[in-house]
Amino acid sequence: MGGRVTVVGLGPGRADWCLPAVTERLLAATDLVGYGPYLDLVPVATAARRHPSDNRVEADRARHALALAAEGADVVVVSSGDPGVFAMASAVMEALDRAPGDHGDVEVEVLPGITAAQALASRVGAPLGHDFCVISLSDVLKPWEVIERRLSAAAGADFVIALYNPQSRHRPWQLDRAVEVLRRHRADETPVAVGKQLGRPGESVRVVTLAALDPADVDMGTVLVVGSSTTRVLAHRPLASSLYTPRRYES
Ligand code: SAH
What we know:
It is a single chain. By secondary structure, the protein is of the alpha/beta class. Helices cover about 25% and strands about 25% of the residues. The strands form three sheets. A five-stranded parallel β-sheet has the order 3-2-4-1-5, with helices on both faces. The chain binds S-adenosyl-L-homocysteine.
């Protein structure tokens, strides 16, 4: 009797930024699996059993969800933001990939959410209006050399760059180093949007220049959007409509 695993994104934190399709699935679930603080963000009251786990145990969590579903449970695995962006959807896919013979009768579905970069963009205008890319600065799952190469290539190709996992207590130097790499390609006055705790209590949003960006203001609850050479600040406008990247690119 195969059950179901749905990997959902709750969005950045606000209940009204979570898709109705996700809340419906949460209400139907028999079991909720996720990082403890994300389970606390679940925007609906449900009687489902909760299986909170620690950070950084994504593979165990994914296997646990599949094992519960194999016994017939209707399991929802919770991520913040979008579950496909540095989150649990890949962990569940990895678990399926590692055990090809298992879980044949478990249905697996992914439901999207608003990712942090989109939430930040919407708070300042339209900085993602042209080509952009998303890079995690965490070197827990990939070597720092790879990160630096990607930063350099993306900055050299003039992408707007969203930076996730910018730094933490365990990784205190990564953002400094990333800014150094970006500044080889970008002017000092390049605008950078800095969003903390978006959609959550204590949210803060600022636009600074690349030269003035202070890594001390940045933590794991922060996402950054670094402008391209065409990203513009409208100094006469309030923050919510102050930053954009034009759709047109003059070559
Ligand atoms: N799946 C998530 C990303 C997980 S990686 C998503 O799609 O948003 C975790 C990183 O995402 C954090 O270090 C931070 O850079 C960013 N992030 C997630 N939620 C955030 C929020 N509410 N405000 C600011 N940044 C956030």
